[in-house]
Write a structure and sequence with these properties.
mainly alpha; Globin-like; 7 helices; 77% helix
Length: 151
C-alpha cells in the first residue's frame, strides 16, 4: 500500500493518538485554545504532511511553517509548545507506519515521513527564532544564566 493511502486510511486513529499525546503533555497554550482548535491544527498538519509526501514537494510545508510560526509567536506560544505538536503527530504517524508497512518498505516510508516533518519543524524553528530576535520572548531569555545581565 502506498504510504499516503496508509496514512489517510488511518487518519482518525493517528489524529486521536496525536491529540491524546499532546493533551496528556499539558501544553499550556493548546489547552487554553481548546480541543477543537488543537484537533484542527493537528488535522491541518496531518493533511499537509500527506500532501507533501504524495507530491514529493515541500513548498506548502514551508509556507505553512512560516504562517504557524508567526501566528504562534503572536499568540504567545513557546517554541517548545509548537514543536510538541509536531512531535505528537510525528510519533502517531510513525507508530502507524511501523505497525502497517512491511519491513522492506519501512526505510522509504520512515524516510519520507521524517523528511517532511523534520523540514517542517526546522522551518518553524527558524522563522520563530527570527521573529523572537525582534522582541522579548521569555522562554528565549538566557540572561538569567549570566551574572551582571538583566532581562
Amino acid at each position: 500500500m502506498e504510504l499516503e493511502a496508509l496514512l489517510l486510511e488511518a487518519e482518525t486513529e493517528v489524529l486521536d493518538a496525536a491529540y491524546s499525546s499532546l493533551h496528556g503533555s499539558h501544553v499550556a497554550h493548546y489547552e487554553l485554545a481548546g480541543e477543537a482548535f488543537t484537533r484542527q491544527a493537528l488535522s491541518d498538519l496531518f493533511r499537509l504532511v500527506v500532501s507533501a509526501i504524495q507530491a514529493r514537494d515541500l513548498t506548502f510545508m514551508s509556507a505553512y511553517a512560516d504562517g504557524i510560526a508567526v501566528a504562534r509567536v503572536n499568540d504567545g506560544y513557546d517554541i517548545s509548545e509548537v514543536q510538541m505538536a509536531f512531535n505528537a503527530l510525528e510519533d502517531a504517524m510513525w507508530r502507524r507506519v511501523v505497525a502497517a508497512e512491511p519491513p522492506g518498505d519501512l526505510a522509504e516510508a520512515i524516510g519520507l515521513l521524517s523528511t517532511v516533518l523534520g523540514y517542517g519543524k526546522d522551518a518553524v524553528a527558524r522563522k520563530y527564532l527570527s521573529l523572537a530576535c525582534k522582541r522579548h520572548i521569555p522562554s528565549l531569555d538566557l540572561s538569567a544564566l549570566f551574572a551582571g545581565a538583566s532581562s
